[in-house]
Design brief:
Length: about 260
Amino acid sequence: MEGMIGVGKKVFQLAKVEDNRAVNPGVFQLILHSPDVAAEALPGQFVMLGLSGLNRDPLLKRPYSIAGAEKGTGKVRIIYRVVGRGTEGLSHKQPGEMLEIIGPLGHGFDIAGKKTLLVGGGMGLAPLLFAAQTICPGSLEVLAGGRSKNEMFWQDLFQSSCNKIHITTDDGTFGACGTCVDILPQIARGGEFDSILTCGPLPMLRGVAAYAIEHNIPCQVSLEQHMACGFGACLTCTCATKNGGNAQVCKHGPVFKAGEVDLC
Ligand code: FES
């Protein structure tokens, strides 16, 4: 394709905005037309996205989890919360405008489990949505957590791709009252899950990983980390591994086996 630079199977090119709209206050769903990224993307991988043009502000690209990809249509789905200048600028992009994209990047989830439990909190549910769509119609349940009912728009997004969705909210305004970690034993006990995939805030990852290790359930954690380059060149995203070494989340992750990385 003209104007495309390939780095291995990664693609650096322009992607056209097909749709970009709020799905909840402060949360947007962006649909990009990027056939080369859509063709290679695996659940758990991410892309670096940036505004295009010489006067772009901010200058640097930022990482976004891939929330869905369709090889047939070339569509790539991103769900993001507006938290700073980069995402604010992104939220104003209109259909037909172009963005710079690099991806798909990183290592994704191993989705070979026979019965999978997805555990996600907040925006950590975005990569799990892609995992659910890929595993479906295989057997999977979702445990989704948020602070309050007004954050749980995720239920509608997951509904068609899982056997069952369990909701928790910190304030008890929707679903069970408490965190995913509070509810996990009761969900997992009767579930006979042979795989847990999780993404979200660090305390949640710690709790889910500890439960999985204690109960011998294979578990993969996806880390959300600040990144500058996205492919192992700048070391911004370095995290500690359990064996005393270091790993780059962008290159060696963002998905790791539970127990492989230090979740402090
Ligand atoms: Fe540059 Fe990971 S973001 S090494």
